[in-house]
Design a protein that fits this description.
Blueprint (H helix, E strand, L loop, with lengths): L1 H18 L1 H23 L21 E8 L11 E8 L2 H13 L5 E5 L4 E8 L2 H17 L5 H6 L7 E6 L1
Parallel strand pairs: 1-5
Antiparallel strand pairs: 1-3, 2-4, 2-5, 3-4
């Protein structure tokens, strides 16, 4: 009888100890995915550093760009994808990119989703044939949010910060 009680007690202790790991695993998984995404972006051979938020005077020549080979996720986006694009977010998971596309779409933006060779999803808010047009549009949109007096509007509404926007030069 004593051995049975000890065995049951050990089994319960074992279940409690290892049963509480699941929430920690999902927390670790999200942190791991975010770190992996940053690592992939930093290790991308064809990438240049992310640009800082633009000043009120657009500086087209000094705006840095990342060069990547990307393909549209949806065939319907293929015609809208040009040489230079304004990227508002980079995501490792397609559902997150699709959710952001939907939120921006609800506000009238025509979002394009692309995927690079490393499997990362890029959420594009505007795409143009020239770098100057892309930088001007990026600055225009960001100035709109600055003018609202709430620079955290993008973060609170869409879950993305201002300083993560960048210009993508499409490689073919």
């Amino acid at each position: 009888m004593n051995k049975k009680l000890i065995g049951i007690g050990l089994a319960l202790a074992f279940l409690i100890a290892f049963g509480s790991c699941k929430p920690k695993q999902s927390a670790y998984k999200s942190v791991y995915e975010a770190a992996k995404e940053r690592e992939m972006e930093e290790n991308s051979v064809s990438s240049t550093p992310v640009s800082k938020p633009a000043t009120t005077t657009p500086s087209y020549s000094s705006e840095t760009v990342r060069k990547e080979k990307v393909t549209p996720v949806y065939e319907s986006d293929a015609n809208g994808l040009k040489a230079y694009s304004v990227v508002v977010a980079a995501m490792a998971m397609k559902p997150g990119a699709e959710s952001l596309k939907e939120r921006f779409g609800n506000d009238g933006y025509n979002i394009i989703l692309v995927r690079n060779d490393q499997g990362m999803y890029r959420v594009i808010i505007a795409s143009y044939d020239s770098k100057e047009q892309a930088v001007a549009k990026k600055n225009e949109i960001l100035e709109k949010y600055h003018a609202m007096g709430d620079v955290s509007a993008l973060k609170s509404k869409y879950g993305i910060p201002f300083n993560d926007w960048w210009i993508l030069q499409r490689e073919y």
